[in-house]
Amino acid sequence: MTLCKDAGLADPNCQLYMLFYYLGPASVGLLMLNQAHEGLPSWPMILRAASITLFDIAAQALNYTGAALAGPTIFAIVYSSVTVWTAVFSRILLKRHLLPGQWIGIVIVFSGLALTATDNSVQVGSGVSHGLLLVTIGSAMHGLTYVMCEIVMVVPDHIMSDMPRWLQMLMGDKNTQRLSVVQNTAVQGFFAMSSLLVWQLVYTLPRMDEFILEPMHEAGTSYSKAAVILGSFALANLVHALSYFFTLRHFPGGATSAGVMKGLQAVLVFVVTAYFYCGVTGGSEMCFSPTKFSSLVTVVGGVALFGVYTEKQHRLERQRQQSPPPQPQPQQQSIQERVDKV
Fold it and tell me: Are 171 and 151 in contact (CB under 8 A)?
């Protein structure tokens, strides 16, 4: 996102970078769908996935616009709240019971990222408060997106039965076929790309000179450089999308586990930012520091703790499923019944 901003490609109204953000999952997702011979899901499931896509577009637009305004450090701190939001929404909608150790891991992850608030590299100035608000709202919405994707992919029937009726109607009841990882990537990527392509044709194209070409010229960005930046943006999100949906469907803990991995991703932003941008662009907020190192160690420890207890929970669930149901105990006759028989 910093590269897009420095290259003059990050106008918050045009959202050109968001078109490329969804381009990778759309194109490769459809190709994988054809190779996997899975076919398209039913139209009701396509519409459900499309509705989640529109919600996620709004969430990601808020997040990346806020990141451009507030800078990578504040973005990483606030974006870590995805972990907490995902756990909360999983508890409310999926009735998911987390072990105390899992909650401790979540708190450690968030606390580790909050350590950066004491670092003197946190940006201050105009636009930061606005960016902070956008990332806060976007993080909460993105946490809910995790849970909604898990519902349409892998939620068991007994959990679907316990959900409110209105949610079953929106996300599909227990008799509805679930989406595979490839299907969800393809459908959501295609609808997101199509929606943003329409926006580029309707809004950006008539204002191309003012909002895109002139900022590119002022930043000294050539067309080939812009293509490389936006292409890299698309490739990075392709890897992200496939990892994200695979975690939701196959990793123990589902949406909550994916949310915790977001916390680890946010800290790794510090490492990448320091390596590529420290002393090159921006100010001290781009550089690594002892506080950020402490944050990295704390978050990795929280992720590891969460993983240990998630595996423990998964093992206990398998044992419960494999153990035979308890046999009913014969009722003992009361003294009065035995006297009556005599």
Answer: yes
